[in-house]
């Protein structure tokens, strides 16, 4: 598993405002979108491309097009939905599939409550969006789900991760082509398995308490 933690002052600045408990939902949503676009730049470094030639008004120019099958972007509902626009802004031709997952706050096990994905992901590059990687249970369930359907590699964009969750995902995905791109790697989990210092409940901060 490859892990990349973004090291850029603009990302840290936006993340600092995101963490602040005084930040309102509209600002939180806007910042999440901006952060994802910045992280997606790194996350898509390995996107598969095909060489093409175009004709400019002056001459022929060699360039690249995204290869087929097109990459699949998978936001994990609910909080991952807040990251979707920022991702497709950078890669507008990607397809989008959905996985709805909620962490049971007692058992900490992820429960899949919705799914809308192609049955066959053979040869697909997949990009999973979930702002929080806490125990890693939700992200791991999503990664396994995609590999079970034939995905070739899975890149996950998370805004904040805890070391415990990152280690759990790494241990469980040995031998698989998995990339994790993070805005920050925080200190730890607390007794409720919330990321510390983190930003609280990402879904609630994006959309309110349900
Ligand atoms: C949050 C977050 C992740 C999960 C992380 O979702 O968006 O999916 O928790 O926790 P884990 O690493 O311990 O599994 P949540 O279950 O709160 O659902 P929501 O997005 O609907 O708020
Ligand atoms: N889910 C969240 O939204 N935040 C955390 O810190 C942990 C899980």
Question: Care to describe what's here?
Answer:
This protein is an alpha/beta fold and 210 residues long. The chain has one domain (2-207): 3-Layer(aba) Sandwich (Rossmann fold). The chain contains six helices and 13 strands. It has helices spanning 9-19, 25-43, 84-90, 137-148, 163-172, 202-207, and strands spanning 2-5, 49-55, 60-66, 72-77, 95-96, 98-103, 110-116, 125-129, 132-133, 153-161, 178-185, 188-189, 195-196. α1 packs antiparallel against α2 and α2 runs parallel beside α3 (84-90). The radius of gyration is 17 Å and the shape is globular. It starts with a strand and ends with a helix. Bound molecules: 1-O-pyrophosphono-5-O-phosphono-alpha-D-ribofuranose and uracil. 1-O-pyrophosphono-5-O-phosphono-alpha-D-ribofuranose binds at residues 76, 78-79, 101-103, 108, 110, 130-139, 165, 193, 201-203.
Judged by helices, strands and strand pairing, the structural class is alpha/beta
What share of the residues lie within helices?
Answer: 25-40%
Named CATH architecture: 3-Layer(aba) Sandwich
Bulk shape: globular
Order of helices and strands: EHHEEEHEEEEEHEHEEEH
Strand residue percentage: 25-35%
Mean pLDDT: 96
Outline the biggest β-sheet: 9 strands, mixed
CATH class: Alpha Beta
* CATH fold name: Rossmann fold
Count of the separate structural domains: 1
- Cofactors and ligands: 1-O-pyrophosphono-5-O-phosphono-alpha-D-ribofuranose, uracil
Which short descriptors sum up this protein?
binds uracil, 210 residues, 6 helices, two-stranded antiparallel sheet, binds 1-O-pyrophosphono-5-O-phosphono-alpha-D-ribofuranose, alpha/beta
């Amino acid at each position: 598993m490859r892990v990349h933690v973004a090291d850029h002052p603009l990302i840290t600045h936006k993340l600092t405002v995101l963490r602040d408990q005084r930040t309102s939902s509209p600002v939180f949503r806007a910042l999440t979108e901006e952060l994802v676009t910045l992280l997606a730049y790194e996350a898509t470094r390995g996107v598969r491309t095909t060489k093409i030639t175009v004709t400019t008004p002056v001459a022929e120019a060699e360039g690249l097009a995204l290869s087929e099958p097109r990459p699949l972007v998978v936001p994990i509902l609910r909080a991952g939905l807040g990251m979707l626009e920022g991702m497709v802004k950078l890669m507008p031709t990607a397809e989008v599939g959905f996985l709805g997952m909620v962490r049971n706050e007692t058992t900490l096990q992820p429960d899949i409550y919705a799914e809308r994905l192609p049955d066959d992901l053979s040869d697909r590059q997949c990009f999973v969006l979930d702002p929080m990687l806490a125990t890693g249970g939700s992200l791991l369930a999503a990664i396994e789900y995609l590999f079970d359907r034939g995905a070739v590699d899975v890149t996950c964009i998370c805004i904040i991760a805890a070391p415990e969750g990152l280690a759990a995902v790494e241990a469980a995905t040995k031998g698989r082509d998995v990339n994790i791109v993070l805005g920050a790697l925080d200190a730890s989990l607390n007794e409720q398995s919330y990321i510390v210092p983190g930003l609280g409940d990402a879904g609630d901060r994006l959309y309110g308490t349900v």
